[in-house]
Amino acid sequence: MKRYSVFAIAREALRYHQGWEKAWRAPAPKPAYDAIIIGAGGHGLATAYYLGKNYGITNVAILEKGWLGGGNTGRNTTIIRSNYLQDPSAAIYNKALSLYEDLSQDLNYNVMFSPRGLLMLAQTHHEVRGYLRTVHANNLQGVKTEWIGPEKVKELVPIINIDGPRYPVLGALYQARGGTARHDAVAWGYARACSAMGMDIIQQCEVTGVRSENGQVTGVETTKGFIGTRKLGIVVAGHSGQVADMAGFRLPVESLALQALVSEPIKPCMDVVVMANTVHGYMSQSDKGEMVIGGGTDGFNNFTQRGSFHHIEETLRALVETFPMISRLKMLRQWGGIVDMTGDRSPIISKTPLGNCFINCGWGTGGFKAIPGSGWAMAELMAKGEPGPLAAEFNMWRFREGQFIDESVAAGVAH
Amino acid sequence: MLILECPYCGVKAEETELSPGGEAHLKRFGPGSTGEEFEAYMFARKNPKGVHFERWRHAYGCGKWFLAARCTATLEVFGTYSAQTTEPPAEIVEKIKAKRPDWKGTK
Ligand SMILES: Cc1cc2nc3c(=O)[nH]c(=O)nc-3n(C[C@H](O)[C@H](O)[C@H](O)COP(=O)(O)OP(=O)(O)OC[C@H]3O[C@@H](n4cnc5c(N)ncnc54)[C@H](O)[C@@H]3O)c2cc1C
Ligand SMILES: [Zn+2]
């Protein structure tokens, strides 16, 4: 892999940019690998990357039924934060945030991480109490967040209406280290680094069956034929239930549509991320100038990557009250992704009933921010066969034992 | 836009009139049940990509709960039926089989 640098740009500028090489190879599958990851979204690619980087396991294939990063990783609204309530969540999301901070250097790929600060508005007294509690919890966890009053909110977000008739802004939970990154670049950066380590990213290759013998996976059936493996990682978000079914176990996961939309580009007007959980809406401004907007999930099981229009309408109605200036904006594009929701709204990074098969799923509406931390923890689990401290509490058996990591009460919208 | 016919009042209700209530025909467990049984009842879900049976409430209509058979991969609706059933009625199963010949049935 030729490294990207200022010198490379200068060199290429002098020769009409003829010398750039493809960011990753497009190999045919080998008969067998030491490890196979199903799903080339951010979490699958990061898992592969840290398997190579931290454990030296590079005879790895990442199988993707569509194109890499084309699932939720390429459809999300890119909010990054680590101000969760429960300790296991704070640990893994904060690990992820720390890795994001120098990911561009580590991958030699600009992921455009932008720690511009993030506000979670409190618009009811219940929410004020909830966020004060989160601030205290975060301080105990060593995650720096603070409670700020309405005047400070207005100072950080001049376009906000702090005394709306239904939901006045009573304050906010503020994480200065939070922000955004470029979603595609995260997938592409990991993919390029994986390919450079000799790993095979095989796109247009759907896994259709999991073969096992005596409780151990031997390989997977795919649209490009059978591929053998010593270890299997399932990292397929919305399709986790389907692939788990192929492997013969059931998950506490349901797949729902989550939508987002962007406006026409306008001049810079908001340089922080604002989430408003009571009214189920959030907004940030992309570098191109588009207002990036999202809300809550649709209510029913759905695999079509399309949501219902009235959900978008509800999101915008709520945000127009909080940001009156967006009422005249034209919306450019709207889309949906299929998110994998668990019963406690926390992810699963776990061993499975099959000895050498591992699963990473349940990131639901909020897993983009977790990609580096999740890949780090999943790689440890796959390499050692046992979870490390970051993953241990996210096992899939916690639902049987009642050991929930309950984030659904911590935030109505868990992005 | 999803449209379901309420089997009680006969109204063809569009989505904003309805509230979704999750998987239908779950077997309920009470005090004295095992951890596995509680997990199955409260958390384990079929989540099929294809034919699915669900609970819905005609929230802004007659207010009653009913059940619907739907395809989660295409959003096609096969039919709705009374909530006072423990499995999908024969006529709904027939309709599904006519449209989805390789459907394996409820697991
Ligand atoms: C609209 C929207 C907004 C969001 N906003 C945010 C946000 O602001 N902040 C945040 O942190 N998170 C957000 N999220 C959540 C975040 O996008 C996801 O949690 C995260 O991207 C999941 O990554 P992943 O790698 O697990 O899944 P994906 O990126 O979906 O990757 C899974 C891959 O598996 C592949 N696959 C599936 N089945 C098979 C098979 N049988 N064989 C081979 N490949 C298969 C799929 O094609 C897919 O590419 C949002 C999600 C959506 C939909
Ligand atoms: Zn009715």
Automatic annotation (TrEMBL), chain A:
Matching entries from Pfam families are given as: DAO
Q: Which residues form the signal peptide?
A: none
Q: Name one GO molecular function term.
A: nucleotide binding
The record's section on PROSITE patterns has: RHODANESE_3 (PS50206)
EC numbers listed for it are: 1.5.3.24
Top-tier EC class: oxidoreductase
Give the reaction(s) catalysed: sarcosine + (6S)-5,6,7,8-tetrahydrofolate + O2 = (6R)-5,10-methylene-5,6,7,8-tetrahydrofolate + glycine + H2O2; sarcosine + O2 + H2O = formaldehyde + glycine + H2O2
Protein family per UniProt = Belongs to the SoxB family.
Query: Know the name of this protein?
Result: Sarcosine oxidase subunit beta
TrEMBL record, chain B:
- Supply the name of the protein: Heterotetrameric sarcosine oxidase delta subunit
Question: According to the lineage, what is the superkingdom?
Answer: Bacteria
What Gene Ontology biological process does one annotation of this record name? tetrahydrofolate metabolic process
Q: Which GO terms describe its molecular function?
A: sarcosine oxidase activity
Q: Per its UniProt record, what InterPro entries does this chain match? A: SoxD, SoxD_sf
One Pfam family recorded for the sequence: SoxD
Upper lineage is: Bacteria, Pseudomonadati, Pseudomonadota, Alphaproteobacteria, Rhodobacterales
Whose protein is this, by species? Gemmobacter caeni
